[in-house]
Amino acid sequence: MAGHMSHQIRRGLPLWLQNEPGKRSYPSLRRPYKVDVAIVGGGITGALAALTFADAGVSTLLLEAGYVSRGSTAASSALLLQEPDKSLSELSRRYGPAAGRRLWELTRDAVADLTATLRHRSIECDLIARDAVHFATKADAAARLHDEYRRRAKAGFVAEWLTAGRLRTLTGIVGHGAIRTTGNAQLNPYKASMGIMRAAASSG
Prior knowledge:
This protein is α+β, with helices and mostly antiparallel strands. It is built from 7 helices and 6 strands.
């Protein structure tokens, strides 16, 4: 049982599938194909890769054992955040200031590119621009967070420092300070993935 559970992507029916009428199916693989690129996995990452290659005129085949976009994509938090999982301070300590900054730039640009693609393709996925707030509940954590804010500002990343009072006024959150960033987004990940999949298929 433990081995089986470790391979489960999720349990239950995700929010994003509760109002979906059915499962979109594509033809099964029944004969050999010769392509330049084969992509394994029909989630949003595979769909984006397929669309990128197809738009570039590269012969591409996407393979999915189950139904497309109904695995980890459907269980996504639906947030498109410019911030990587690690702070700029931590990445700079680990890889050096230049590499840390570059990792942040790539994450920021990826969010901008994805939202631009969704809008350009007119993909209906409930896409909404959102701000993000990273807050601290303790004074010492707020001091470290303010150092992170200064590092981001010095590196050229747009952010706003929220004092405890400003944080509470804007969000209702009780904390000692926060970093507020713009340029983030929220969407329906299942609809987004299916729309990208359709665009990829129409591109060949």
